[in-house]
């Protein structure tokens, strides 16, 4: 506590991490130089400044220039039109946090789209039909055309303008924009060497940090999920950094290792973490598509071993580290090795039963509540079971873990699909949505205007997909309606079923805005999976009604019309 009263210490801390301002002493959050240092590193730090400094025009502009959402914490300044115009000139993305009357103000919207073309998504519907506004947005960034009104979006003249316009990527860490590399669909020989880190048979396409080397037009090569994530990154939406691997033939372990290792460099740079580092490890997930005869799903938390979990847990969170190791061994055993999970599940059930018996309140425990010491003992049992079932010990080399997971993902497509489209794998940094009470995962319904859906606090996405825990409502209104139906008091409701809107309001507001943007870009959006880590929202994947119906229809038709191999290939497409 004494350190946070030391001005030099706080200045050094906020220079590295603006969020550190929240721990500073009261006199220091009223120190203009300290606050300026913090907001230049992280604009959202302005929320922790003294009220009089939140109303300081220069400080507020510095905060908004770094992060558009800082507008929410500028008090009465956000009602000042002149201030908003200056702020939007510095950071057009701030338009999405502006009041409705400013989003309908033509001059302000023009200022925003000239700085950030995709800010058009936050403009009023009337201005998205304004030729000059759309033209200015597209001239700044051709991706803005996706947010224009239908008649302008389909206009040949506007399409020509978009083709001639640059495509810009916004880097959230640097708050700057730079011209993108040409799309991977049409690279020159030299550019292909740069974007395809590996041999001719296996290429990598990075996404994250506001940019991507892939897009929805590459769905056949990247796979539906990979193309989706790349497109969301292109839109400037928050997706965990990662890369797609695309192969043109049979991929061996050595080639998968070399290409993945090179592609990891961009992910490590974007996250500031390092794969295999014992104190700041980058943990990865690999998505494996449903296959004929093989397991599907995500292999999560790749990069942990006995040494790393001990050292990382000592400096980060022991419970989170060991719970992540548990998830790694279980997902690796199921997806990569195809082992029977019943023995593993019996070990978990035995631990939960012991916890239930010890509980005087008679409460049933969940996986996420297993104490750290029990997790340690569980991992001993897991590794013993793994060695028995797989015939080999669990791999302790993070690079071996990643290589084996990638090879399984690349071979998950049916032979017929691989012959026509090659193979693909999606590798992504892990979001620790089970970190604390300000973290969690959810599924929002894209077909409704009230943002209905489900929410799991302090959970990983496999908990949401596995139906292993009781879900909570996303909105306060839905939570209160359910409590009324169950006859719960308001106090009991907040204790047993608080909504995401009430628990993490800032992330909920971001979710609403991002879903609006995605609904305009993906008209068939049915649902959106997302994760929150310590209040920071990350988008995972989308689902559309047509995709689901098409998949079910093809599955039915294929049983009647095609040979099994060809039917599976058509369903994959």
Helix content estimate: 40-55%
Order of strands in the sheet with the most strands?
4-3-5-8-6-7
Measured between the Cα atoms of the first and last residue, the distance is 58 Å
- Annotation, overall tally of beta strands: 13
Strand content: 5-15%
Major sheet description: 6 strands, antiparallel
- Secondary-structure class: alpha+beta
Write the layout of secondary structure elements.
Layout: H1 7-16, H2 32-41, H3 51-54, H4 57-66, H5 81-90, H6 100-103, H7 106-115, H8 131-140, H9 150-153, H10 156-164, E1 168-171, E2 176-179, H11 189-195, E3 202-208, E4 211-212, H12 219-234, E5 242-247, H13 253-271, E6 284-288, E7 297-302, H14 306-315, H15 318-336, H16 342-358, H17 372-390, H18 398-410, H19 415-421, E8 423-429, E9 440-445, E10 453-457, H20 461-465, E11 472-473, H21 476-486, H22 490-496, H23 500-503, H24 505-521, E12 525-533, E13 536-544, H25 545-561, H26 564-572
Antiparallel strand pairs: 1-2, 3-4, 3-5, 5-8, 6-7, 6-8, 9-10, 9-12, 10-11, 12-13
In short:
The protein is built from 26 helices and 13 strands.
């Amino acid at each position: 506590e004494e350190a946070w009263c030391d001005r030099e210490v706080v200045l050094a801390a906020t220079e590295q991490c603006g969020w550190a301002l929240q721990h500073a002493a009261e006199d220091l959050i009223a120190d203009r130089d300290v606050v300026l240092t913090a907001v230049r590193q992280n604009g959202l730090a302005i929320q922790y400044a003294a009220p009089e400094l939140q109303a300081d025009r220069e400080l507020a502009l510095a905060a908004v220039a770094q992060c558009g959402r800082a507008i929410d914490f500028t008090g009465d300044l956000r009602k000042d039109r002149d201030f908003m115009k200056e702020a939007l000139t510095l950071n057009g993305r701030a338009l999405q946090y502006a009041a409705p009357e400013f989003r309908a103000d033509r001059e302000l919207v023009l200022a925003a789209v000239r700085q950030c073309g995709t800010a058009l998504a936050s403009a009023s519907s009337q201005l998205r039909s304004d030729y000059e506004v759309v033209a200015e947005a597209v001239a700044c960034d051709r991706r803005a055309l996706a947010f224009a009104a239908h008649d302008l979006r389909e206009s040949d003249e506007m399409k020509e303008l978009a083709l001639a316009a640059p495509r810009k990527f916004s880097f959230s860490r640097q708050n700057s924009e730079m011209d993108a590399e040409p799309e991977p669909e049409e690279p020159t020989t030299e550019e292909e060497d740069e974007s395809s880190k590996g041999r001719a048979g296996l290429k990598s396409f990075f996404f994250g940090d506001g940019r991507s080397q892939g897009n929805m037009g590459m769905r056949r090569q990247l796979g539906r999920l990979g193309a989706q994530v790349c497109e969301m990154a292109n839109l400037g939406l928050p997706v965990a950094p990662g890369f797609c691997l695309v192969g043109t033939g049979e991929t061996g372990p050595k080639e998968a290792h070399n290409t993945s290792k090179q592609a990891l460099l961009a992910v490590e740079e974007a996250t500031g973490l390092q794969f295999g580092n014992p104190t700041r490890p980058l943990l990865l997930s690999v998505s494996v598509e449903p296959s004929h005869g093989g397991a599907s799903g995500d292999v999560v938390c790749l990069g942990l071993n006995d040494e790393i979990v001990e050292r990382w847990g000592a400096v980060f969170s022991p419970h989170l580290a060991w719970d992540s190791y548990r998830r790694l061994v279980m997902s690796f055993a199921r997806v990569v090795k195809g082992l029977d999970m019943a023995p593993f599940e019996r070990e978990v059930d035995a631990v939960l039963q012991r916890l239930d018996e010890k509980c005087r309140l008679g409460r049933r425990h969940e996986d996420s509540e297993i104490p750290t010491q029990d997790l340690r003992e569980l991992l001993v049992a897991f590794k013993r079971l793994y060695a028995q079932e797989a015939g080999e010990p669990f791999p302790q080399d993070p690079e071996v873990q990643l290589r084996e997971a990638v090879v399984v993902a690349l071979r998950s497509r049916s032979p017929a699909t691989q012959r026509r489209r090659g193979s693909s794998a999606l590798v992504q940094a892990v979001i620790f949505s089970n970190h604390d009470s300000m973290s969690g995962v959810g599924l929002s319904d894209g077909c409704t205007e009230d943002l209905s859906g489900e929410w799991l606090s302090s959970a990983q996405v496999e908990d949401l997909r596995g139906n292993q825990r009781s879900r909570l409502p996303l909105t306060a209104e839905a939570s209160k309606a359910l409590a009324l139906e169950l006859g719960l008091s308001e106090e009991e409701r907040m204790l047993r079923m608080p909504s995401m809107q009430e628990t993490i309001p800032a992330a909920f507001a971001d979710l609403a805005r991002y879903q609006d943007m995605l609904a305009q870009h993906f008209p068939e959006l049915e649902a959106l999976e997302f994760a929150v880590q310590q209040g920071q929202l990350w988008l995972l994947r989308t689902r559309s009604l047509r995709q689901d119906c098409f998949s079910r229809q093809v599955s039915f038709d294929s049983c009647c019309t095609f040979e099994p191999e060809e039917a599976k290939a058509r369903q994959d497409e």
